[in-house]
Inverse folding.
């Protein structure tokens, strides 16, 4: 028998992901867009009104629309992500005494994330779509 997840659960999760995404704007290692994408998905399952609100939001909506529509990450977002991640790993690498394995793990993880970000297209392949 198929279990149906209540709309209220999706709605609550949507708002939780919005809050985490907004916090991620200010915390360099917490990504914003993936949480906003999760929020959009949750709202699409629970509330068309809030799904539209998120997609139409002047600051939060563009990266979600770009990703959902075309798999695009804007150049300004790529540069900002690179700068924030660079600053976030520079501090512990240089000024804080941490084990070498932690430094390597941080560098490898950051390199993988930045590789993913920079290999995504910067604009839609067909701008008319």
């Amino acid at each position: 028998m198929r279990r149906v997840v209540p709309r209220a659960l999706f709605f609550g999760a949507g708002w939780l992901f919005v809050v985490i995404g907004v916090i991620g704007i200010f915390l360099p290692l917490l990504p914003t867009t993936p949480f906003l994408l999760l929020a959009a998905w949750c709202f699409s399952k629970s509330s068309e009104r809030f799904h539209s609100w998120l997609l139409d939001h002047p600051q939060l909506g563009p990266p979600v629309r770009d990703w959902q529509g075309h798999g695009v990450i804007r150049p300004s977002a790529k540069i900002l992500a690179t700068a924030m991640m660079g600053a976030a790993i520079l501090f512990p690498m240089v000024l804080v005494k941490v084990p070498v394995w932690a430094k390597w793990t941080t560098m490898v993880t950051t390199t993988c994330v930045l590789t993913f970000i920079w290999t995504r297209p910067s604009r839609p392949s067909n701008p008319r779509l």
Observations:
- The mean pLDDT is 87.
